[in-house]
Amino acid sequence: MIVKSKVKYINSLGDKKLRDADGVFVAEGPKIINELLGESRAEAVEIFALKEWIDENGTTSAPVQEIDDIMLGRLSFLTTPNKVLGVFKIPQLPALTFKGQLTLVLDGIQDPGNLGTIIRCADWFGISQVVCSADCADVYNPKTVQSTMGSIARVNVYYEDLAQLLSHADVKVYATSLAGKDVFDIQRLNEGVIIIGNESKGIRESVVGLAHERITIPRIGKAESLNAAVATGIILSAICPFPSRSRS
Amino acid sequence: MIVKSKVKYINSLGDKKLRDADGVFVAEGPKIINELLGESRAEAVEIFALKEWIDENGTTSAPVQEIDDIMLGRLSFLTTPNKVLGVFKIPQLPALTFKGQLTLVLDGIQDPGNLGTIIRCADWFGISQVVCSADCADVYNPKTVQSTMGSIARVNVYYEDLAQLLSHADVKVYATSLAGKDVFDIQRLNEGVIIIGNESKGIRESVVGLAHERITIPRIGKAESLNAAVATGIILSAICPFPSRSRS
Q: Does pTM top 0.90 for this prediction?
């Protein structure tokens, strides 16, 4: 049996202030919960699950409480709750360093779903470090967590003053823009910073001015712009180094 | 002054059956409305706009009715209504033909936002023909229209029985899959069909079996999959022919 105050507490974790105060966030659904439980970095505080999920997953390191559909509906942030919900500790991040790796920098990505999709995309292309401007959506917003599809367990997401951070960058900085060098003509990179901007406004002046090169996705048709997550996917697919081959 | 029955009618256009019955759909926001009004194919039935939009846009071919913020909020499908809303006729489509062009085929893309983002992406890469399976989201769902960001005015979207349609394909058919030929090793194409599948289930067996080649986006990191719109963007960026250059 879950007491009312616990339901209220979990519901309150939709609010960033309350997440930060306790250093915890909520994740949902078998796919994401299982990925988080499988990564040593993500520490579960409590898991609430339907009997079905418990039967399939056996024991976990965290306390699991069996609940029914009705209670899951009360706890869940999803339109269609999905078997299991967990409260996890927000992990401590290692120090941010640019040398020897690719870093994705996001300037003003405000849609939580887009942010999550971008993090998932970074994870696909082996990028483990994403830096957000202060006005980006919060990575622990339940919608962001959901749309990372578990990649939140592997990608370190930082919030920084981008102008200040990039003014000290010791690697090459690339800014995506509508007018720049064709990204397919750039050599694949083992190290560097790639900045993606807000969908409608692009990258702000104080940040774009710190880039060493502007890169663009060539357009064939007439759409004015691409969704920021789609643009990120294309840029990373063109730039990230595949271990097995070099690009001609 | 807008009568209650009109508000009720526009609200009802969130329902596919009612859109189909009258052959109309709703679009919102200056960007999308202006793109639709700029394309001869999209015929406006009625435009409802704040004075601000009317002052900026002058006359249009369709009747424009000035409304206030409160009325816009009543008509709008958006969380944040945006100056203008229009009712447009669903255009008649030319006959579907595969020869001489690239066609994007979508199998079971159920999220309206994802479908719209994919259509926007097709438009960016110059693809003007998208074929959906019957269980895809509806292209005239207000959320889909919104996320096309105006590309719905230029891309023809068909709904077909994919297995039947592709069994008669007279061009090469490529299916995206988690195990196939690296998409960056495929020659850029002037003609052909590219199938994108449902995010969690992929392309159904009856459809994937009709493809001549399977293609995949190489993975460096650990994410299990990519968002369907992101995957579409990467595939199209690798395959679509840029007029100015050939791929080495």
A: yes
